Structure prediction request, 148 residues.
Amino acid sequence: MKKAIGIIFGLTIVLLLATNSMYVEWEEIYIMIGSLSAISIVYNLLSKEKPSYGHILGSPILIGFFLSLAFSLLDLVLDHYKVIKGVPDGRFLTLGETISEFSDDLFIVALIVMCSVTLISYIVTVIYSKLFRKKVQKLFNSRNLYKM
Prediction:
């Protein structure tokens, strides 16, 4: 589980580096929704805890909100330091000014990502557990899987 989540984190950072923008745009929001949904699904399906509705809904809410804030801030910092040539308004904003300028937007992005991740991971987890209930039970009872 840790390896899979680490790979998803790394891929997300690479994809955020590949986009070239001065703030968090929709394509980066879609990248965060996809990667955080994958992390949430992996966490829900491979968790040691017994699956319950509180666990299935609680973890995506926390993952979606806090990690989207972290990825958004990381994206702002990365975009700030790979800043473009030329000065659009006469001078570049400092990193603190950039973060304070987009802080309201980052909160709205975190709410959008949180709702999307919660919905996607809940639907996938419930469908997967309904279709493959025996495999999921074996997954939760297997000790070898937790050593990943």
Notes: DSSP finds five helices and no strands in the chain.
